[in-house]
């Protein structure tokens, strides 16, 4: 029941009353409300916000932060006199961002900002032609959609395509990489068309470029973990659960759970470095065609780094897409077939780790990772680190 006098006799909130509650600065949301600050986030200073509005109208800062957790306006990637980190992948990324920061004689846009919202459009090449005609002759915009894709791929947003059996039996990967048909169900690896069946002698499937019947898209985890530590702020936040968490017996974060504590006791070497990443994995199907009239289900597999404080680890910028399992039907119990690339990578991260530069500590260290939980619509697996 609504506590206000207007609705004292009501059994539910009226629309007008709810609106007044939300807009009343003395009762509901404050006017100018932009950032929730009661979970421990730091307030942004007005000068910083003003600087961001003036200098980053193209939201280049948002692009880099959303993908890699780097605030390009609030912290320099490499300050004056600082040496670029020794890790090769880090160096390539820093140099790439610096090279593409600004278009000559253009104060409002950067080279990357032109590509951010438009990369997916088929007419992008035509748009580029128009923009290059309109801008000064010395502009350095890419000449085509494909050149743009090549530049954006340097950000580390790439993925690998792995062919799969349409019946979810195997991945054409490792020992099955060169197979033309599934060794378990004998189904061809390739799509078949009416021309393939008719075989009119003029155009056969061998003469045309073959198209796989099903493709798994795998987004490698290692470079994404490297990106997390490229921001000193994010690298510091990854240590939050060990250094800044309020530990008074209340359950506020996965760190307070028995599972986390038992894991620490079982693997003390892993737990010595709080930067070692504890991951959760989640998956669910969705209709990628935005209409319920078509029965089709695509299954993304998402990784969540639980080292981060609760106001960060459940935010979209820190979710890491690992796999995109195609439809038209959900993989069901055969999802373990598609998890193979992720499982292999997690095993490598557990056994050997990966060399990573920590922008907060200004040092290189061997990072290890373990998957601790699943949030899923598929069967629960044991801890893969064991």
TrEMBL record:
InterPro entries attached to this UniProt entry: Transpos_assoc, Transposase_21
Pfam families linked: Transpos_assoc, Transposase_21
Domain Transposase-associated: residue ranges: 2-41
PANTHER family: OS08G0208400 PROTEIN, TRANSPOSON, EN_SPM-LIKE, TRANSPOSASE-ASSOCIATED DOMAIN PROTEIN-RELATED
Protein name stated in the entry: Uncharacterized protein LOC101497928
């Amino acid at each position: 029941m609504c506590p206000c006098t207007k609705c004292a006799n009501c059994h539910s909130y009226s629309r007008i009353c709810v609106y007044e509650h939300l807009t009343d600065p003395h009762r509901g949301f404050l006017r100018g409300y932009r950032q929730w600050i009661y979970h421990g986030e730091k307030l942004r200073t007005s000068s910083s916000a003003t600087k961001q509005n003036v200098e980053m109208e193209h939201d280049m800062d948002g692009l880099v932060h959303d993908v890699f957790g780097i605030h390009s306006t609030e912290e320099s990637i490499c300050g004056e006199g600082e040496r670029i980190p020794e890790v090769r992948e880090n160096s390539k990324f820093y140099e790439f961002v610096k090279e593409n920061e600004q278009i000559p004689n253009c104060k409002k846009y950067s080279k990357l900002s032109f590509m951010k919202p438009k990369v997916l459009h088929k007419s992008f090449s035509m748009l580029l032609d128009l923009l290059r005609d309109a801008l000064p002759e010395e502009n350095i915009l890419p000449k085509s959609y494909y050149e743009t894709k090549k530049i954006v791929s340097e950000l580390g947003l790439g993925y690998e395509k792995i062919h799969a059996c349409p019946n979810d039996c195997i991945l054409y990967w490792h020992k099955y990489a060169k197979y033309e048909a599934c060794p378990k169900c004998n189904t061809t690896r390739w799509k078949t068309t009416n021309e393939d069946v008719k075989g009119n002698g003029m155009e056969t499937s061998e003469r045309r470029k073959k198209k796989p019947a099903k493709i798994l898209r795998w987004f490698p985890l290692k470079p994404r973990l490297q990106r997390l530590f490229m921001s000193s702020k994010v690298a510091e936040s990854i240590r939050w659960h060990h250094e800044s968490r309020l530990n008074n017996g209340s359950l506020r974060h996965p760190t307070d759970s028995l599972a986390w504590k038992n894991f620490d006791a079982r693997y003390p070497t892993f737990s010595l470095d709080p930067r070692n990443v504890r991951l959760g994995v989640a998956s669910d199907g969705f209709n990628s065609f935005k209409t319920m009239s078509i029965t089709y289900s695509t299954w993304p597999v998402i990784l969540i780094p639980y080292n981060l404080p609760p106001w960060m680890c459940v935010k979209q910028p820190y979710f890491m897409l690992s796999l995109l399992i195609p439809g038209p039907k959900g993989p069901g119990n055969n999802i373990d077939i598609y998890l193979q690339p992720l499982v292999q990578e997690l095993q490598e991260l557990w056994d050997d780790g990966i060399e990573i530069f920590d922008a907060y500590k200004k040092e290189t260290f061997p990072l290890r990772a373990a998957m601790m939980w699943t949030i899923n619509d598929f069967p629960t697996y044991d801890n893969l680190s064991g």
